[in-house]
Automatic annotation (TrEMBL):
CDD domains: PGRP
Secretion signal, residue range per the UniProt entry: 1-30
Membrane-spanning residues: none
Family the entry assigns: Belongs to the N-acetylmuramoyl-L-alanine amidase 2 family.
Annotated protein name in UniProt: Peptidoglycan recognition family protein
Residues in N-acetylmuramoyl-L-alanine amidase domain copies: 50-199
Chain ranges of the Peptidoglycan recognition protein family domain: 38-193
Length: 217
């Protein structure tokens, strides 16, 4: 099944289950008239390493979202297992090469449309909607923004798979709802530094903001 069709099927099944018996754990589900809460695999689910130090939880809500890409291979493996392997790859890079306490991003979106929690504690903070975890993704913005990174590298005209795009929209809409972030307050890493990150996603930010706004209405 094509990954975009798989995601639509997951949402439809979750919506039907929510209407019949309320929200089910582990699947996306509708929240009344609000944005859809996406299925997110927490650090325990994908087997993350323990942080090598203290992860700071900020006792207020973020005011914006910063989108990144991870500059990993543009894999055609759209499986959940691949999403987990990618989460491990990012964590190892950030902890072992960069010397950071944990993954720098709060969340990652795979090319197959699977979401994984990045820095430990980011998922319960998001679902609670009142605090967020201090990441290490954008210089000067980490105390104000949550970082969402998309698997792959999108330089030189590379385009993200539809499933990744759809899930990024869903995750951003849910985060905006949970934290009271305006849909216009979604930016790219490039907005805050000399970098090409997030590649073509930066050009797509106006469309992303518009689709997030629509998903929240």
């Amino acid at each position: 099944m094509h990954p975009s069709n798989l995601f639509r099927r997951r949402l439809l099944l979750a919506g039907a289950a929510g209407l019949a018996a309320g929200a089910l754990s582990g699947v996306a589900h509708a929240r009344g008239a609000a944005a859809v809460q996406p299925d997110i695999d927490g650090t325990k689910v994908w087997g993350a390493r323990s942080p090598q130090g203290t992860v700071s939880v900020l006792q207020y809500r973020p005011s914006r979202i910063v989108v990144h890409h991870t500059v990993s291979a543009n894999s055609t493996d759209y499986s959940r297992a691949r999403a987990h392997a990618h989460a491990h790859w990012v964590q190892d890079l950030h902890m072992d090469d960069n010397g950071w306490v944990d993954t720098g991003y709060n969340f990652l979106v795979s090319r197959g449309g699977w979401i994984t929690e990045g820095r430990a504690g980011s998922l319960p903070a998001l679902t609670g909607g009142r605090t967020f975890v201090l990441g290490a993704h954008t210089s000067g913005q980490n105390t104000q923004a949550i970082g969402i990174a998309c698997e792959g590298q999108y330089h030189a005209g590379a385009q993200p798979p539809q499933a990744q795009w759809e899930v990024l929209v869903t995750l951003c809409a849910y985060a905006c709802d949970q934290y009271g972030i305006a849909s216009t307050q979604i930016f790219g890493h490039k907005d805050y530094g000399t970098t090409e990150c997030p590649g073509v996603y930066h050009d797509m930010l106006p469309e992303l903001r518009a689709e997030v706004a629509a998903a929240r209405s």
